[in-house]
Amino acid sequence: MKVPYSWLKEYVDLNVTPEELQEKLFSCGFEVEELIRPGAEISRVVVGEVTSCEAVEGTHLYICQVNCGAAGADIQIVTGAPNVYAGMHTPAALDGATLPGGVTIKAKPLKGIPSNGMLCSGEELGLNEDLYPGAEVYGLLDLPKETVPGTDIREITGLDDAIFDISVTANRPDCQSVLGIAREVAAVLGRELKMPALDYTCSQTRVEGLDITVEAPDLCPRYLGHAVKDITIRESPRWMRRHLALCGLRSINNVVDITNYVLLEIGQPMHAFDMDQLQEKRIIVRRAENGEKIQTLDEKEFTLTSENLVICDGHRPVALAGIMGGLNSEITEKTTQLLFEAAKFARDNVRRTSRALGQSSDSSARFEKGVSEYITELGMARALHLIQELDCGEITASAFDCSAGAPREGKHFTASLKRINDILGIRVPAKEVLSILKRLNFEVVRSGDSLEVTAPRYREDIEVGEPDLAEEVIREYGYEHVVPTFLKAATVTSGGKNPEQQRKDRVLSVLCAQGYHEVCTLSFYADADLDELRIPAEAPERNVLRIENPISVNLSVMRPLLAPSMLHIVVENLKKGNNEGRIFEISNVYRPGKKGEAPQEIPHLGFAAFGDDEDFFTVKGSLEALGQAFGLRFDVERAEDVSYLHPGIAAYLLCEGERVGVFGKLANEVTAELKLHKDSKANHKIFLGEIDYPRMMSHAAASFRYHPLSAHPAVIRDLALTVAEEVPCGDLMKEIAKACPRVSDVELFDIYRGEQIGAGRKSMAFKIRFEPEDKALTPEDVERFVKKILGNLKFRLGAEIR
Amino acid sequence: MGIEQKIRELRDQMGQRIGQIDSKDNLAAFWQEYLGKKGSIAELMKGLGAVPKEERPSVGKIINEFKVQAEEQYRALSERMAQLELQARNRKEAVDITLPGKVRPMGGLHPLTQVKNEIIHVFAGMGFEVFEGPEIEDDDHNFTRLNVPKDHPSRDMQDTFYLPGEWLLRTQTSGGQIRVMDRQKPPIKVLVPGRVFRSDSDATHSPMFHQMEGLVVDRGITLCDLQGMLDRFVQQLFDESVRTRLRPSYFPFTEPSVEVDVSCFECGGKGCGLCKHTGWIEVLGGGVVHPRVLENCGIDSSVYSGIAFGIGIERITMLKYGINNIGLLFENDLRFLKQFQ
Q: In chain A, which residue's Cα lies nearest the Cα of B341?
């Protein structure tokens, strides 16, 4: 929201500098994002009076003697501008002057003639015709003769102005205008607000047959229309052009400028229809018919639906309500009578239509923020006043006011002074509260602690009483009056993470201790990420939750698996030359809900390990370490059907017989398609895993009790066994443990294959630990155990002692 | 030559020999030469028989003294040899201590997790519990009951990702307030950390980021408490000397609403690049809980009041570690992550 200082001055007698005002605005809730000084880049440019001017033969140059007042009464400046003349007052950039765009002027000879500066055009000073008359003339800027030589040029041309670019919070649409900000400035400075003139007189003339109907009062709660005839389209006056230009708008003609001016000044988007183009002289505000078309002022055509609100004449849409007028009823040089529209349109409908059609304007932006009916009334009155002030039309007696019946007064409520102070936690003197509210145009009648309050009509954000008033009071009274207290009245509570949250922290720590780095990846990706892992079309993971309005298709699928994200991070790291590493993340995966139920969020533990030193067993070992920390006993089961894992180097992870996850080496065919250097593909082993976190943790030991230690030493016995190649080690270990209750640990320490053993067989050597119970183990005991073990192994797995 | 004369000679000779001993072998030879079964001292003892009987005790004494002397010498030499040998062995075993250590590489927590934990730690000390709400929310929890009406422009402030049906990705952890107050009645002190999602992506915005909502509901809670509590928080998180400043702002679920700035911890408020020469850095938003939000959760706003705040974890992390691009936090470059071990 751009507000020029000079424009504000028309409503408030400002007794502060722009910088001081910036501070004041900041403290009462209006952050000035930028204080723009249009003349900031200009220095040492003054009014110069050309006292003599002499053409240099054979060139296009003129030698001028210039009176620059205090800077020098007789400064020689050479110029090439054809419009220079003796007696001209024009901007003179002195030696060392700076101009917009980083230009520096130095005294230096031109074609050998000494020149001590430069005479300037309007454009060289960053001016245009709207900001200063004559600025766009080719050649030097011809200043009025009453300008005093030596005066800073910024004062003369208004370039010493300041423009506040203010960020207005969403609850204060009433401040989306110069007048709105002026009201706040008046309040914070404690000065009077001078309202812009709103008076006008109507003639007796009526426009025969003109009629306005609102058929969709829910989308258009207020519609004001007023006919103006005998329009003379011409240039706008200087002051209006200048105000528009300071806010970045280009002057078009008086009628268009009036609508823009009212939008900037009052905050009401206005529209003017060329009345001669309105068929049947009718205005109907209604929902569009499906498929109905309109071509807007910018010559774009839109096909509408019943969600869109249109302004129609007797036959066709003539405006897209609140967004843009139709080309068919545009104001042109030929317009002689017009219909002004000032309306309140439902902001969410304007927003939705604007989004749906991809069409927006200053008007739609303003409507989306919210317009109050008070502003609508003010806007129409101001526009009509300006028609009269600019003397460019006759205001007819044909005025229309279609209202859905909203009350035309400010919100009224009772508030307690004590409650206001209780919210703030400080005691603001009652006198101060009343004074602040009065400055903000609240009507207040006090009786004791009770306040009868009527909010200004434009303050639609005021709704619940004391909290609103507390905010108004403290932002004017000053936040520096808040005295920090440390939860003075609060009950003591016990805090911290709950046991489940603490346990999760421990999981993170254990994984970190295993060399895993926690990563943080986006919760969404694309179908292509699932394709990359060759997830089959019929796999349950393909039943994904989709974002209806994604930023891009790459971020449109709520991820059903962490694995693609993990692989992506691995690949990115490999590309950067990080050739090894371990990563993990505990984060949600998502599934569509069953009919009528919320979509599911399931925390998964995803992880990856890559690099020369990694193999299936280093990864498996890290999981075993995790298991140990939580009393989890993992079993594995060959996983041959996981599309992205190597069928021979992958395993399901089981807890008490339940599958809780899967891990293994990235499938060769997936690796082959990664966008990596050829060598990288060959050199880097990538392992991925994914665990259903709550399912795994449901098997974790909830609590444990200590087992008494045996007073007698354990006995360790080594056994080397030969078995058929296909017998898995895990089966042998399980069988050994099962055969004898005294076995407390079985550790594999060697595998051997060779002639001695014979083809198709292997030898595996185990260290078996026998733990005594209440009495020491005798050699005979151990012999008996071993015999039992060997017997079972032979019977069940065909194992022989080597 | 008398025996005494011989001993004298032997003693002189031994004195010279000692200087030549530089190894265990030499030392063994020394032993053999003097103290061995066939050594000089044994010889002398044998010669004692030839000494007249009355002189024997005195001569024997002299021999004995020489023997003791030789033994002492031997012992001293042995010790020296042992020492030399140890020194030689130590020299041989010495390592290049500047060779790299053998590390079992540690992983580490993501900086966002670390900062989240730090924040939780500070507030846990004040009696805050931690609640983690769902990421997929309905309109009711994310907007309506937080006092954001259907047509309200603040629904524009945070462009929302919508899912099929009535569901959406939460745009703020504030919805956690509603879930907590539905389950629990005052006194309430709770933090709601978590992922949030907005349809925004550029150098300073990620479509997914992390917030931490804080909520206190009790009797007599005021705006002054909000500042007092946040003062403690920023002092523990940044520096003891840091102060907060409140300024007016707007959130639909608080009234009054404030933006909370901290005095720049880089320059102490004098003005520097970090604080854009203002001396202040915007860190979080908060306010007094809107009574309608309390009422929406069945809490009597005439009895209880509350304060709430929302912290952007990415913002705090970036400030704390001088990270200038939010993308780095989601790139997961191991070189970056390892810096936070």
A: A517
